[in-house]
Design goal:
The chain is mainly α. The chain contains 13 helices and no strands. Helix 4 packs antiparallel against helix 5 and helix 6 runs antiparallel to helix 7. The protein is globular, with a radius of gyration of 19 Å. 38% of the residues are buried.
């Protein structure tokens, strides 16, 4: 732990528990298939509480980010992991390529879509954009047996818009088009749908070219906002 991380975790432990709502916690846990315990904090509550946690503190170093993230992942309640995701997203700019190794730990530990998707789009994506040497890591993740690393590789360009490497996006989607897991198939459709906002014709062409390989779910998600009649979602 770093000195800053010690302060942040002490404040979290002081500020979060009094705001807990057991009834809401039970509902949140059920929504996440009872994989994690919750405190029952709402998003607006957390936004307000997080301001209190971070009030007056200096900006973190990369070592602080790593220490905070790992400490939050060690806490049982899911809200701590949400705090870590928000903290990483806010300060990802201080991260070097080495930070990706820690993010990989987070993606593959206590894994579910709620943390993985935030890390993919708002931490992994910016890291890869800032450090192109990390593209080779994405090329490795798309081949990984861990479905959450595959999902992250597919989704990491989600916020890139015109900066999207379309060839890589389409290659990743084609590589995992036959994946049997729902979360990978959904990610393919989501990533394609998002890129369709930038280049709809390219997505139409890709879907048509790979119709026999893509799952109906991926096709349906990819073509959800495309002009009707241009691509049959099957």
């Amino acid at each position: 732990m770093t000195a800053l991380a010690d302060v942040i975790l002490a404040r979290l432990d002081e500020i979060y528990p009094p705001a807990a709502d057991p009834a809401r916690a039970a509902g949140a846990a059920a929504y996440m298939r009872n994989q994690f315990p919750f405190m029952g904090l709402t998003t607006p509550q957390m936004t307000k509480l997080n301001r209190a946690v971070l009030a007056g503190l200096a900006a973190p170093t990369e070592a602080d980010l790593v220490a905070v993230a790992r400490a939050c992942w060690a806490r049982p309640e899911r809200e701590y992991q949400y705090f870590a995701c928000t903290y990483l997203r806010r300060h990802v700019g201080v991260g070097s390529p080495a930070l990706l190794a820690t993010v990989r730990e987070l993606i593959t530990t206590k894994s579910w879509w709620d943390t993985v998707d935030t890390l993919a789009a708002h931490t992994v994506g910016p890291l890869v954009a800032a450090h192109p040497v990390l593209v080779s890591t994405m090329d490795a993740w798309i081949e990984d047996e861990n479905l959450w690393l595959v999902r992250t590789a597919i989704l990491h360009q989600l916020q890139y818009k015109q900066r999207t490497d379309a060839d890589r996006l389409f290659r990743y989607c084609a590589r995992q088009a036959g994946h049997r897991d729902f979360f990978v198939r959904k990610a393919i459709g989501w990533a394609l749908r998002q890129y369709a906002r930038t280049d709809p014709d390219a997505v139409r062409f890709f879907v048509d070219a790979h119709r026999t390989e893509l799952s109906p779910l991926s096709i349906r998600e990819a073509t959800r906002h495309l002009a009707p009649g241009r691509v049959d979602p099957g």
